[in-house]
UniProtKB/TrEMBL annotation:
Pfam families: TruD. This is tRNA pseudouridine synthase D. The active site is at D79 (nucleophile). Substrate binds at F26, N128, F329. Residues 154-303 form the TRUD domain. Responsible for synthesis of pseudouridine from uracil-13 in transfer RNAs. Its EC number is 5.4.99.27. The gene is truD. InterPro entries: PsdUridine_synth_cat_dom_sf (IPR020103), PsdUridine_synth_TruD (IPR001656), PsdUridine_synth_TruD_CS (IPR020119), PsdUridine_synth_TruD_insert (IPR011760), TruD_catalytic (IPR042214), TruD_insert_sf (IPR043165), TruD_pseudoU_synthase (IPR050170). Keywords: Isomerase, tRNA processing. It comes from the Bacteria. GO terms for biological process: tRNA pseudouridine synthesis. Belongs to the pseudouridine synthase TruD family. GO terms for molecular function: RNA binding; tRNA pseudouridine(13) synthase activity.
Length: 349
């Protein structure tokens, strides 16, 4: 299926360019946000990989350490078609630390290892640092202007297209599942499809908000506001909007949109009404999420890249680096820069 064309914050770019001509053009460095304890039953193994997907590497580590695959965990998926630094966690209660000098897997290099007291769980990371090479830029001056705007004003915090599968296949199957046209039995596939459904609903609310307001920083009564960089949020009441708007303008607060599921979405009043109108045609997907006991949550609508820097190799080739919090997608940054040639393929969660 064809995915919706969600709104752009700075208007649809007329610039052409290419993302990821090769894996080396897309480097992802995972940032857990903490150091290993140095002791404990878990072993944190950090490695650099090229041409390997995350699950494949996890299974190889399990085999090498002679433990079940379920005893190897990681914070988030990273794309196969990139150079990524990532930490894996091996549960080794009462076992010696394996000698990883003999570990061999094509495309992988062990960087470091250390004992840790706690299991590394999904989502337990601070963020990811990205180092991109963007090629075949058709208009250097126009791209430079967009870079400046993104560095100060951010981009919509959309889930990247890779979340929805090739040609939107994950979302298409989720819709068919929701309408009882198919049954999904495999647990991992169910998780992928539910994630695609919820991500699309979030993107739709953000896009509609942007279409109506032309901004993602104008608060409405009942908006659920999140402390920047934090997961907690609170509801904005009308009499406090002037003070809260100032905090939003100062980047202390972010306006959130719903990740629909079971339970209340969290917003109230005008904000809730807008969200409900935006998803009025998606009752089947929302019912699927509720039926599958996916809990409702909130996510910031805007993300501003941190430590954003760039330099030009020549008039058509740009080196770009930035840091994004966990769950945000580098492709959402690139989407605001140019129309892409080739693959669109980072995964950072």
């Amino acid at each position: 299926m064809t995915l919706p064309e969600w709104q752009w914050l700075y208007g649809r770019p007329a610039i052409q360019g290419q993302l990821k001509a090769s894996p080396e053009d897309f480097v992802v460095i995972e940032d857990l946000g903490y150091q290993a304890d140095g002791e404990g039953e878990h072993l944190l193994v950090r490695l650099r990989k090229t041409g390997c997907n995350t699950r494949f590497v996890a299974d190889a580590l399990a085999k090498f350490a002679a433990i079940p695959p379920r005893e190897v965990s990681f914070a988030g998926m990273k794309d196969r078609h990139a150079v990524t630094e990532q930490t894996f966690c091996l549960r080794l209660p009462g076992k010696e630390t394996p000698d990883f000098s003999t570990f061999s897997l094509a495309g992988c290099e062990i960087l470091q290892q250390a004992r840790h007291k706690r299991k590394l769980r999904t989502g337990a990371l601070a963020g990811n640092a990205f180092q991109l090479v963007l090629r075949h830029i058709s208009d250097r001056a126009a791209l430079e202007e967009r870079l400046q705007r993104i560095a100060s004003g951010g981009v919509p915090n959309y889930f990247g297209q890779q979340r929805f599968g090739i040609q939107g296949n994950n979302l298409d199957q989720a819709k068919r599942w929701a309408s009882d046209a198919i049954r999904i039995r495999e647990r991992s596939k169910r998780s992928f499809l539910l994630s695609a459904a919820r991500s699309a609903l979030f993107n739709q609310v953000v896009s509609d908000r942007l279409a109506q307001q032309g901004s993602l920083t104008q608060a409405l009564p009942g908006d659920a506001l999140q402390l920047t960089g934090r997961g907690s949020w609170f509801v904005a009441v009308a009499e406090e909007l002037p003070q809260l708007q100032q905090r939003i303008d100062n980047n202390e607060l972010r306006i959130t949109a719903p990740l629909p599921g079971r339970g209340e979405w969290g917003s109230r009043d005008a904000a809730l009404e807008l969200e409900q109108q935006s998803l009025a045609d998606d009752a089947d997907l929302i019912a699927l999420l509720e039926r599958e006991r996916v809990e409702a949550a909130r996510r910031a609508m805007l993300v501003i890249p941190r430590d954003m820097r760039w330099s030009w190799r020549d008039d058509a080739t740009l080196e770009l680096s930035f840091w994004l919090p966990a769950g945000s997608f580098a492709t959402s940054i690139v989407r605001e820069l140019f129309e892409q040639e080739g693959n669109d393929a980072d995964i950072a969660e």
